[in-house]
């Protein structure tokens, strides 16, 4: 099982990976807050040859479910561009949040938009890396907060082999899903969990808030996080506060013996 962390893309991600002893790193390929097209990363070749796995997290503004053309269209383009950049890094996938709609909008149309993302790309030969759809913590109109929503999403995208799933433990907890047995419940829907975002939560169960904590310092029992990791058998990325990541990795290594 490969374990690592989200690292900064702009300050020597490979060096950070070596310092942390990470088997896998997650990084952005462009400023996550804007729509800029990614450029080739200066460490792309070195990362491909490093033996360290890479996964790319897409930028935050992306919402492929949106019924608003002016948000959905740049979102689709950004997913395509960032998937290409991920392939350049030899990445195992591109993480994309499930997204959300606005008050009064029909969820069925949001799921249809997810399906269209894969359909349109299938016409062009498909995505070069799996698109790992991540569960989110909050909002009343999320596409992938609850198991019911994930089931609707998978009805829409489950036929495409490049549609994968990324389970974030903080988001599931804050989104009101019990963590024990969750891996099995999700696998029963999706047939796969490709990646774990292993994070504790600064907030209570079902708070709807997305504030990650280091493994031993949040509201989730760290033993439960280990149980999720063992059950998923997927690579795990820490998205915990940077100052505690080395200690989080030590904790994981010790807990797994
Ligand atoms: Zn996450």
TrEMBL record:
UniProt xrefs under NCBIfam families: PRK01060.1-3
Protein name, entry field: Deoxyribonuclease-4
UniProt keyword Lyase present: no
PANTHER family in alphabetical order: APURINIC-APYRIMIDINIC ENDONUCLEASE, ENDONUCLEASE IV ENDODEOXYRIBONUCLEASE IV
Entry-linked Pfam families: AP_endonuc_2
InterPro entries listed in its UniProt record: AP_endonuc_2 (IPR001719), AP_endonuc_F2_Zn_BS (IPR018246), Xyl_isomerase-like_sf (IPR036237), Xyl_isomerase-like_TIM-brl (IPR013022)
GO molecular function: DNA binding; DNA-(apurinic or apyrimidinic site) endonuclease activity; phosphoric diester hydrolase activity; zinc ion binding
Record carries keyword DNA damage: yes
Cofactor: Zn(2+)
GO biological process: base-excision repair
Domain Xylose isomerase-like TIM barrel positions: 17-254
Keywords: DNA damage, DNA repair, Hydrolase, Metal-binding, Zinc
Protein family per UniProt: Belongs to the AP endonuclease 2 family.
